[in-house]
Backbone:
């Protein structure tokens, strides 16, 4: 547990070095310097913003009072005191920091040895006595185990903590490492002994969904189990906990809500453009698994730092589920590393033969961008897999994520777009050619040919997280390329009609209300047109709109499809159409109480029903984002291939094997 403070200080220091947070003291306190990944930077940014937001609100509300104090529990190598002092915000506030004795001693030594730090605490500061490892006029550093409540109380009293003045308690990922009986006792003790007090908590939530299971496993491996989660698994339970332990007011938000509601739009945009970034799913999942809580009692005026500055339409309560869809593993497809990947694409190239290309996954025991293709074929009711090494003239073109593959005939498919790294330009087009007379198990040879792009077609294809849909217009075959993103544009809202024989862009008139730009949406062919659903919009907010690009005599028309109840906004899902029903599979949404399963939209009536996926027969967490899926109409089954991602600092999760979802019961009941 003591080790977590050091690694979090290094991550905060890395975020500060890249401009996410303004804090020149972190590098002095963190000791070692390491550059973390952009996803980690964002995670520590939102944590720092939440804590700062609440602390500064407390100081603002109490600025007219003669004296206040802040008690930071499990403070580690945090720079809070130095930052506040440097900003001139501690005129009448004393900061007390508590951590394990050896952490407090290390920090005291650091402060004494660094003029930049010791000068801020003042000349009178120096070594305290016993558990007080460092003592200044407005800063006390105490070495004591938080779970020994009577000892903590004695040392705080000795250090001069005053029960009668307004006090802010801060516990930033601290209480969850304690046994619940001890953390509950600490919460209750603070409420009982301090008539005017506020309590700020930042920690994890939602242990049982797929991301939560990966998160818990990570902390168990570090030998720092998260104790709060079993008893207080969600924000509502944490709120009840504080209200039941003597606090009179308590508000709580998960970090998706905090980011949207409490961070000004211009600051959101500043953060989003600091470095190339393309891990939206993991960022939003990380944010739905952490919360900030502000509890208070006896404060006049009342302390409410978590009031949204903007109102965002929220789905009240959990998403209602109409039923469940059973999931089962495919017996013969387990243990095949090439099927463990995400950001790939799978396409049916002929009945019962599926080609999977690209993505990031596992090859030769390493995590890497995937070069090899996997061909799945069904024989006598069983699926089998064959690995195919494509014949590629330039290896870079084969290793791409977030591309599309469209099958144009039984010997030809077209790869459009995709990326290598998010900072590089999107990739162009490739022909995939397979022999016409390939055996029943599918092609054992796929030749790949680069398409030399005409300048006009370049704008159409140098993108990723887009959609490419087959369609016909006046008897001619086209691919409709829509949305996505590029290295320069975080969201694209344009579209192109690619005439497939010669791959040139054709101008076709489109009227009607233009959908807002999006990426990571779904697109399906339907009745000569294209259905677009969901996606991530310009402000990195999930969208819940469904549009039909409908064929008219002289061109096409955008038409919005109203769904009821309204479709829960989502992105990174897959979609299929079957007999007038649009099926959306998985994805990411902001409803932390459940994960998206299968949603069925009746395209005639607009009726929208959500079904949970029953995973009781799976022994591992099923992450349904960045996956691919193929609908098998005869069996009324969906084959889900791959999926997962880089789960914040908790490690990469790849769904270990393909899964069959049986839809027969829900397609009949409709």
Residues:
């Amino acid at each position: 547990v003591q080790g977590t403070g050091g690694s979090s200080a290094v991550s905060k220091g890395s975020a500060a070095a890249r401009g996410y947070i303004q804090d020149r003291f972190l590098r002095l306190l963190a000791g070692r310097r390491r550059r973390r990944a952009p996803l980690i930077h964002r995670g520590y940014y939102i944590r720092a913003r939440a804590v700062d937001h609440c602390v500064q609100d407390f100081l603002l509300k109490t600025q007219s009072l003669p004296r206040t104090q802040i008690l930071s529990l499990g403070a580690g190598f945090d720079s809070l005191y130095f930052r506040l002092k440097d900003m001139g915000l501690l005129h009448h506030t004393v900061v007390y920091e508590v951590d394990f004795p050896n952490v407090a001693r290390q920090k005291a030594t650091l402060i004494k040895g660094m003029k930049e730090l010791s000068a801020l605490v003042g000349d009178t500061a120096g070594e305290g006595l016993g558990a007080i490892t460092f003592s200044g006029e407005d800063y006390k550093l105490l070495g004591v185990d938080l779970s020994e409540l009577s000892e903590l109380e004695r040392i705080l009293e000795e250090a001069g903590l005053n029960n009668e003045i307004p006090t802010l308690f801060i516990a930033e990922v601290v209480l969850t490492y304690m046994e619940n009986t001890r953390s509950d006792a600490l919460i209750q003790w603070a409420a009982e002994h301090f008539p005017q007090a506020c309590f700020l908590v930042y920690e994890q939530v939602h242990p049982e969904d797929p991301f939560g299971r990966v998160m818990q496993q990570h902390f168990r491996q570090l030998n720092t189990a998260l104790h709060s989660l079993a008893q207080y698994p969600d924000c509502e339970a944490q709120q009840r906990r504080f209200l039941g332990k003597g606090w009179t007011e308590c508000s709580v938000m998960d970090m998706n809500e905090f980011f949207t509601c409490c961070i000004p739009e211009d600051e959101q945009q500043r953060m989003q453009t600091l470095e190339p970034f393309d891990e939206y799913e993991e960022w939003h999942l990380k944010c739905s698994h952490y919360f900030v809580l502000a509890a208070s009692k006896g404060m006049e005026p009342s302390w409410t730092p978590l009031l949204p500055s903007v109102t965002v339409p929220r789905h009240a309560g959990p998403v209602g589920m109409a039923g469940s869809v059973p999931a089962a593993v495919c017996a013969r497809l387990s243990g095949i590393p090439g099927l463990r990947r995400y950001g790939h694409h799978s396409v049916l190239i002929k009945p019962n033969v599926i080609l999977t290309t690209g993505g990031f996954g596992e090859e030769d025991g390493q995590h890497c961008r995937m070069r090899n293709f996997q061909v799945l074929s069904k024989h006598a009711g069983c699926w089998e897999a064959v690995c195919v090494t494509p014949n590629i003239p330039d290896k870079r073109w084969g290793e791409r994520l977030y591309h599309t593959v469209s099958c144009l005939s039984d010997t030809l498919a077209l790869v459009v777009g995709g990326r290598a790294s998010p900072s590089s330009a999107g990739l162009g087009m490739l022909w995939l050619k397979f022999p016409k007379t390939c055996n029943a198990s599918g092609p054992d040879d796929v030749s790949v040919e680069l398409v030399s792009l005409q300048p006009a077609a370049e704008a159409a294809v140098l993108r990723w997280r887009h959609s490419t849909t087959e369609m016909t217009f006046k008897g001619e075959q086209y691919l409709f390329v829509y949305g996505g993103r590029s290295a320069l544009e975080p969201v694209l809202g344009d579209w192109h009609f690619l005439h497939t024989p010669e791959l040139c862009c054709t101008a076709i008139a489109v009227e009607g209300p233009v959908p807002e730009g999006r990426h990571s949406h779904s697109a399906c062919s339907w009745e000569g047109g294209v259905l677009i659903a969901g996606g991530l919009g310009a402000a990195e907010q999930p969208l819940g709109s469904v549009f039909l690009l409908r064929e008219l005599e002289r061109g096409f028309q955008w038409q919005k499809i109203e769904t009821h109840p309204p479709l829960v906004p989502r992105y990174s899902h897959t979609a299929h159409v079957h007999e007038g029903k649009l099926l959306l599979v998985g994805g990411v949404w902001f409803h932390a109480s459940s994960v998206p399963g299968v949603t069925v939209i009746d395209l005639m009536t607009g009726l929208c029903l959500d079904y949970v996926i029953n995973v009781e027969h799976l022994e591992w967490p099923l992450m349904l984002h960045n996956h691919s899926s193929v609908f098998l109409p005869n069996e009324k089954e969906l084959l889900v291939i791959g999926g997962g991602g880089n789960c914040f600092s908790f490690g990469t999760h790849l769904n270990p094997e393909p899964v069959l979802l049986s839809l027969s019961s829900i397609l009949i009941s409709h």
In short: The chain has two domains: 49-297, 321-662. The chain has 16 helices and 38 strands.
